[in-house]
Amino acid sequence: MSDPTEIIIENGETVPTRLPIPTERQQKRAKRKLVPKLLRVAGRIPFADDLASAYYCALDPDTPMKVKLVLFAAISYFVLPVDAIPDLVTGLGFTDDATVLATALGVVGSHIQEHHRLAARRLLGLPERPSA
Q: Among 39, 107, 110, 111, which has the minimal tally of Cβ within 10 Å of its Cβ?
């Protein structure tokens, strides 16, 4: 089997759900492609810290597998060279990426912890947010 899966039985369901498990190769590819692209375009995209936070959350071993899958899917869309709206189009280039990320964060955003956000801000060279 080339695509490892995890079998999950949801609350009360009798038929198990098969979910793909992010492989080490996929995680390495995400790191190899996401970080350079993110640092290259960070000044042009307002959601760079959210994207980096999602990345750190997806790598966290305490993050549930379903959450990792959603986050890696959103991150993968960002790094794909083929895009619905090319990132070079001024003003519109990142709107589709932002929509995919916003949707993913709407679904699983509660799993992104403060330490993920701090790591993202450090990666991007942004100041830490003051504690409220």
A: 110
Side-chain-side CA neighbours of 99 within 13 Å: the count stands at 8
- Residues with Cβ < 8 Å from 121, sequence gap 6 or more? 49, 52, 127, 128, 129
> pTM for the complete prediction?
0.64
Give the CA dihedral 25, 29, 32, 36, nearest 10 degrees. -160
Q: What's the CA gap between 26 and 14, in Å, rounded?
A: 30
Helix (H) or strand (E) segment spanning residue 19: strand 17-20
β 5-8/17-20 pair status: antiparallel
Read off the DSSP letter of residue 61.
Answer: T
For residues 91, 98, 20, 58, the Cα torsion angle rounded to the nearest 10 degrees is 120
